[in-house]
Amino acid sequence: MHSHVPFEPVAIADRYELTEHLGAGGMGEVWAGFDRALNRRVAVKLLKSSAFDGGLNALHERFLREAQLLARIGHPAIPAVHDVGTHSGHAYMIMQLIHGTTLLQFMEDEGRPSGTRIVQFAVQICEALSAAHREAVVHRDLKPENLMIDADDKIWLLDFGVAASLAPSDPRLTSIGMASPGTAQYASPEQHLGQYEITGASDLYSLGCVLHELIAGEPLFIGTTARSVGAHHIQTDPTPLRELRPGTPAALERLVLALLAKQPEERPASATDVKAALEAILLENGDDLASGEEQQTAPLQPQLPLYNVAAPTVHVGVDADVVPTLPQLAAEELSALRVFALTAYLDGHFALALPKLQQLVQYAGIELGPDSAESIDLGLVLADIWTALNELDEAEACLRELRENCPCSAGEGMPHENQSADRLRHLDIEHMLGQILHAQGNPESLPLLAGTHASLLSMHGPNAPEVRSLRTLMDSSAAV
């Protein structure tokens, strides 16, 4: 079970006071602070000591790399980095403190913005992306939660924690675990496919997802798991915006559809080009981009961020006698718990989703059996959460248990016509477990990855992106 890192509100390096806790994630916490030397307020980002055990391991490298990338970009819409170091076993980063509201919270509080305001927001986002891309930095996690609006209506681009550098001189850091960088709702098809080379075109796709949601008032694609959402991003065409919000200018609809092209090379060439197209739309349509439609809607009923409301409390014990039976737990309570957990998971709030998913997995195992489809599907989500939180031992244990319980014997290269739902679940388990073991340097990964590769090869052929990606991973695993 994860809990907040127990940082005490003391001075970091005898200079930076921790004054207010702002948030926490799987690797650490963010605080508002005060810089005694320069007499100013700052943001303090801290990495928990257990993430690197005092050495310069991959997580610590990523943390330092984030600071270096931010310092390299140096754009007024991206918070500046003032300092970086370690203190009492914790890596820290001192950053510019931004006061404002995330775009996610803005949509929940105020509803869908006017068309003009949406385009103005997008122009500013493109300016920040252009600056990052000029420095060969790809954000890889552009989403409403990482965009902040300040009191002057200025957009800030936040959280470069999973950013990638494309500069040839920069080291490539291998991803820890199997979870693709980014958030399922806004990640590009190539991110969902786990492709190694991610370019600025991926950020443009994420921008298209954000714009589509702002204009339509609902996420581009919705599913019950990150994998089902990813399948939509890979295969499903987006609904044209004018079908969802009549009055949207045709040029804006065309631009968003271009941003959402499945192939990176079919998207606009650069964020600078997108900005120019947006400015032309503003110029052509004046101050009324909705053609007479109501400019500001009522606050949206939150379709995804349901974890912002109180989650139902379900007390699940170890003994079956303590666990509520289905008649004791109202169907609406169970449904609300499931929606809460999966919604938090899909939006990248893994630590928040974790305890509720654990309850659901235990409940399903007792009520429906550990080999039920529901138990296996929820278990796969739980393993994905453990991986995203970098708890690879927990993820491995979860996947091994699922492997034992999945009602399908392992087999390699099973013909597509013989695939069953259980077989596909087993394939998912083998694939995830192989990637986890690969990340841990365990040679057991190679036969698992080979079996998965054989099955995917028979299903999709040698040129499918997922087959090529897995082949690359197998080659790297064999070279270890």
From TrEMBL:
UniProt xrefs under PROSITE patterns: PROTEIN_KINASE_ATP (PS00107), PROTEIN_KINASE_DOM (PS50011), PROTEIN_KINASE_ST (PS00108)
EC number(s) per entry: 2.7.11.1
Coiled-coil blocks: none
Keywords: ATP-binding, Kinase, Nucleotide-binding, Serine/threonine-protein kinase, Transferase
SUPFAM superfamilies given in the database record: Protein kinase-like (PK-like)
Database matches in Pfam families: Pkinase
Domain Protein kinase intervals: 16-282
UniProt-recorded Gene Ontology molecular function terms: kinase activity
Positions of ATP binding: K45
SMART domains noted in UniProt: S_TKc
PANTHER family hit by this protein: MITOGEN-ACTIVATED PROTEIN KINASE KINASE KINASE 20-RELATED (PTHR43289), SERINE_THREONINE-PROTEIN KINASE NEKL-3 (PTHR43289:SF6)
Name of the protein in question: non-specific serine/threonine protein kinase
Organism encoding this protein: Streptomyces tropicalis
Lineage: Bacteria, Bacillati, Actinomycetota, Actinomycetes, Kitasatosporales
